[in-house]
Amino acid sequence: MKAVFFDLDNTLYDSREYCFGAFKEISDYLSEKYNIPSSEIYKNLTNLWQKKTSIYPYLFDDLLKILDIKNGKLTMNIVKIFNGYKGKLKPYSEVISTLKKLKKGGYKLGIITDGNVERQKRKIKLLGIKNFFETIIYTKEIEPKPSESPFLVALGKIKIKPRNAFYVADNPLVDFEGAKKIGMITLRIKKGEFMKIPKNKYIDFEIKNFSEILNIVK
């Protein structure tokens, strides 16, 4: 094996750190604007997130319905706050040490991540991990997962064949299909909001701790 690619959210760090921090800023904004307790807004928003998950596209629209706020342009302002959050983030334990060992072992490393491009770039900066990776693919610039396209682009950039590369991610619903269909080896880390979703045919390995990657890629 010659390369290991990673998803970002819930794979390299706990995405609740970003989401819940941004939700607090959104709650404070709406509280000041509509005189609703910030704690009430935050509770509704986190409950919605836990029920619908982060891949649900109408989270903020649903929140405004619960709060009985009718403002067609308000969702755009909330999304702007969410995408612009700049709070502290930290990688999962063992991430930095494992990345260092993979680099020392001669593996080429990359990230393939969905989501708003500027938001994802900021997350990587806040996590302090950019220098570990030869290439970072933002699928919004190509085609979101489960498309095969971002994986083909990523492999093309480092000139490695699919059979010589791993993809490590967390979400069985979207992360693995594209990678597996082009012949990459897929590795699921069972962390984050999707950890209870059953394994599917696109997943080759499952692990609980990040350092277990080292035993599989050898």
Full CATH superfamily name of the largest domain: HAD superfamily/HAD-like
The profile of the biggest β sheet is: 6 strands, parallel
**Second rung of CATH, namely the architecture of the largest domain:** 3-Layer(aba) Sandwich
- Count up the domains: 2
Q: pLDDT below 50 for ≥5 consecutive residues: which ranges?
A: none
Secondary-structure element sequence?
Answer: EHHHHHEHEHEHEEH
| Discrete helix count | 9
Terminus-to-terminus distance = 7 Å
β-strand number:
6
How are the strands ordered across the major sheet?
3-2-1-4-5-6
Estimated helix fraction = 40-55%
What amount of the residues lies in strands? Answer: 5-15%
Helical/strand content category: alpha/beta
CATH class of the largest domain: Alpha Beta
Mean pLDDT equals 96
Shape: elongated
The CATH topology of the largest domain is Rossmann fold
**What is the gyration radius calculated from CA atoms?**
18 Å
What is the assembly state of the chains in this entry?
Answer: single chain
Description:
A six-stranded parallel β-sheet has the order 3-2-1-4-5-6, with helices on both faces. Helix 2 packs across helix 3 (59-66). 43% of the residues lie in helices and 12% in strands. It has two domains: 3-13 and 89-217, Rossmann fold, CATH 3.40.50.1000; 16-83, DNA polymerase, domain 1 (Orthogonal Bundle), CATH 1.10.150. The model has no long low-confidence stretch (mean pLDDT 96). The protein has helices spanning 16-34, 38-52, 59-66, 74-83, 95-104, 117-127, 149-158, 177-181, 213-217; strands at residues 3-6, 108-113, 135-138, 165-169, 185-189, 205-207. By secondary structure, the chain is of the alpha/beta class.
